[in-house]
Amino acid sequence: MKQNIYSIFSLVILFWMASCTEKAPSLGPNPTSDDVSFTAVPTSENANIYEFTNTTPNSIAYWSFGTGASGKGETVTAEYAVQGDYDVTLLVVTADGQAEATKTITIESTDFTLLDREDYNLLTGGADSINGKSWVFDKMTLGHMGVGPGPTFADGETFEPTWWQGGPLAKEGLGMYDDVLNFNLNGFKFNLENNGDTYAKSYMADWFTSRGGSIIQDSDDHTYAITFEDQSDWTWSISDRDGKKYLTFSGDAFPGWHVGGSQEYEVITLNEDELYLRTVGENTDEAWYFGFVREGFERPIIEKPYQSEDIFDNFAGNTNVSFVADGALSFVTGVSNFDFNDNDAESVGRYVRTDAAGEDGWIQNYQTELPYRIDLTERHVFKMKVYLMPSNDYTTVTPAGETAGWLNADTPLATTVALRLESSEHGEAWRSRAEVAHTIGSDQLGHWVELTFDYSSVMTDGNFNWAWDAPAIGNDFYDKVIIQIGGEGHTRPGTFYISDFRLEE
Question: The PKD domain covers which part of the protein (predicted)?
Fold first, then answer.
């Protein structure tokens, strides 16, 4: 839309320049609803499918069909499966501004053939399911709640819940895990059975109190005592746009956890047993994630064995694990070793941090997930050789405004090497992780250095009580090994080499 407006303005400016007059161009008056016109005609094939045509001169047309669906273009069609009145709005953009107009169309009868859609049937159970279909939070699965960068971020198109993923029962007792969401094809009704309390973001306080709710817990956002007695205007709709599906709620309806913002939720996953949604909340910097399962569905539990095994990688082909690069990290194995002092390996690994912005630049680690949980009780010492290039710039900082939010400080490339052990099943991995880090002195730059990572005295928050009173070697949930060089949260580049990584006997 902006591109077209800019093009029109450019033509106006060029005309002014060509006229060689000193009088500045003037735009016409802003259009009003009286200037907007369109036709609405049922198609000859089906009276429940309408064709809409924009008849407003010199304009770009954006449509809202009154069903939650929308479109763009001079001529568009929309389906109306259920009888009733629908308000169709056309928004036009012209060289002088924008305006909109609305018409009401009346659908005389329900066309059940238009209701027999795969997405409708999966969500509601279909026409034969008189009581609709119920969904509950997938509370035992990592990521059933989550938050990540929203569309106002430069890298917003890489939507993922990278900032936080709720682990199993992450919000137990806060009013959401007993909620039941019911979708019914009859009248596109939506019902929320919240059992008297609802979990919401704290900035939704005015919304809840204006509807008779009261705060009963103010711990990590709010839980409100509230009952939604009248849900008569709570409905749902599914629309398709740009190759994606969107689930939209009307009235005061929301899917059990209220984060404000739009009532439109992108459908990431919808099948017989799973419903995974994403929406932009009150703050457009943030995207929120919701994971549900069909009521009564139980996921099969696949337990990783807890065992002690050899772990090794020379980064030249001899390995029993599979490391992968995070974010914008560039890692190459089998690079020729150029310094045989203190390391006689012919080939090593090259670890290159790039200057990528945002999330991809902040987190540039080299990690592997194991098919088992590491038993550290007897074997808890890792070793690795590292070579930090003295030519790297360890002084220039990434300004605070470009670093990760948890830093919020000017941050240079660090001369640190960290080895982290984490659990793939814990959404707040930073709490339960075990980490040993070394700072390489200036006299060690440009030399191979063998580092020892001993976890025998490392304490963690493995008890999840914020006390960091759980010995790492007593935790039985580590299945990820992460190598981090140069620090995190900044976008400063650097080149490093690593070799001979191993868990000691």
Answer: 63-114
Question: How far is 255 from 180, CA to CA, in rounded Å?
Answer: 9
Q: Which residues pair with 502 in a beta bridge?
A: 312, 383
Mean pLDDT of 151-179: 78
Residue 499 belongs to a domain with what CATH number?
2.60.120.430
- H/E run at residue 35: none
Q: Name beta bridge partners: 286.
A: 149
Q: Tell me, yes or no, whether 417 and 498 share the same domain.
A: yes
Q: Are residues 282 and 376 in the same domain?
A: no
Contact residues for 165 (Cβ-Cβ < 8 A; gap 6+): 142, 143, 145, 146, 289, 427
Structure tokens at 254: 């929301």
State the burial class of residue 245 (Cβ atoms within 10 Å of its Cβ: 0-12, 13-18, 19+).
middle
> CA-CA distance, 55 to 103, in Å (whole number)?
14
CB neighbours (10 Å) of residue 329?
22
- How many domains would you assign to the chain? 3
What is the tens place of the pLDDT at every residue in 46-75? 999 999 999 999 999 999 898 867 788 999
Contacts of 44 (CB under 8 A, 6+ apart): none
Closest to 440 (Cα-Cα) out of 472, 415, 414: 415
Domain extent at residue 403: 306-503
What is the pLDDT at residue 312? 97
> Over the Cα atoms of the chain, what is R_g?
29
Contact 323, 366 (CB under 8 A): yes
Question: Given pLDDT bands bounded at 50, 70 and 90, which one contains residue 98?
Answer: very high
Query: 52 vs 71, 79, 150, 315, CA distance in Å?
Result: 10, 11, 33, 61
What pLDDT shows up at residue 75?
A: 93
Inter-CA distances, 364 with 368, 413, 426, 471, Å: 13, 12, 20, 27
Q: Is 317 exposed, middle or buried (0-12, 13-18, 19+ CB in 10 A)?
A: exposed
Tell me which residue of 209, 211, 198, 291 sits closest to 251, measured CA to CA. Answer: 211
Query: Which residue from 441, 259, 276, 417 is spatially nearest to 353, judged by alpha carbons?
Result: 417
Give the list of residues 6+ apart from residue 428 with CB closer than 8 angstroms, or none: 164, 167, 170
Q: What CATH code is carried by the domain that includes residue 65?
A: 2.60.40.10
The 10s digit of each residue's pLDDT in 368-421 is 999 999 999 999 999 999 999 999 999 999 999 999 888 889 999 999 999 999
Could you say which of 259, 294, 329 is where a domain stops? 294
257/200 Cα distance (integer angstroms): 5
* 327 and 443 co-located in one domain: yes
pLDDT at 464: 86
355-373 per-position pLDDT tens digit: 999 888 999 999 999 999 9
